[in-house]
Amino acid sequence: MRRFAFVSKLIIVVALALSAPFAHAASTAASLGKVCNDWSGDVNAGGVYNLSQPMILVHATACESIITGYIFGIKGTMGTDDKGVLGTYTIEKGVTSPQAVKVFTLYLSNHPEEENKPIGDVLYRAMTQAGLLTLVPQKSEPAIVPQKSEPAMPLVSIVVKSTPPGADINVDGKWMGSTPSTIQLAPGEHEISIEKEGLTPWQRTMTVTAGGSSTIDATLEKPRKLNGK
User: What superfamily would CATH give domain 156-219?
Assistant: First the structure.
């Protein structure tokens, strides 16, 4: 039992040591496909390796190492799909390297026209077709369209006088100064009140027209006494 465990560990160490040269040599999909051909049913199923043919394990380990490297290289990177949509590559949850190897070899056998293409491109198409790799479109912020604001209406100058002078000018309930004064009002309807202590207030509803000018000349009178008193 100890001898078997020692031989197994030795084969794994040799496999890992040789995986780097294989990775360097496997520059095209076809060259990696040759390395992955030894990914036998027993190896893929996690069965017992045939120790009389250690290169099968070496090739299988090298194949898995290379595929794993490309998977980590693809995951999380930005790219575009066939329609040119920009997004992030994501690996479906639970995907294993043996799955990716199986998908890669099957795809390559069905698409011999892609043998001389880069490994990464072929692996991307194989995993995408198998549903192991997806492209999540990048969310773009909605464009902010500036709203067109209505041009402000020019204010209209109103000359306000009163007899006697020194009366308060109130427009729409707001104090605007004392007579005589020139005030600025927006076009539209306004409530005008001119008041002075001891005199009857002068009140009018006034419509101000854009482009025009107006003058208010209010005469303030003393309140009328009842019964001549």
Answer: Carboxypeptidase-like, regulatory domain (2.60.40.1120)
Question: E strands of 45-108, at which residues?
Answer: 78-80, 86-91
What residue spans define the domains of the chain? 2-137, 156-219
- Pair 100, 119: CB distance under 8 Å: no
Q: What are the DSSP E strand ranges found in the chain? A: 78-80, 86-91, 133-137, 156-163, 168-171, 174-178, 181-185, 188-195, 202-208, 214-219
Q: Which two tokens stand for residue 30?
A: 């076809």
> What values do phi and psi take at 107, rounded to 5?
-65, -40
pLDDT in tens, 113-154: 888 888 888 888 888 888 888 877 877 666 666 677 667 778
140 Cβ contact list (under 8 Å, min separation 6): none
Report residue 82 as tokens.
């066939």
DSSP annotation of 152 = P
Whole-structure pTM value: 0.45
Q: How far is CA 132 from CA 70, 78, 93, 101, 127, in A?
A: 14, 17, 8, 12, 5
CA-closest candidate to residue 67, choices 133, 7, 10:
133
CA-CA distance, 150 to 192, in Å (whole number)?
A: 27
Contact 92, 133 (CB under 8 A): yes
67 touches 123 (CB < 8 A): yes
Each residue's pLDDT tens digit, 33-43 = 877 776 554 44
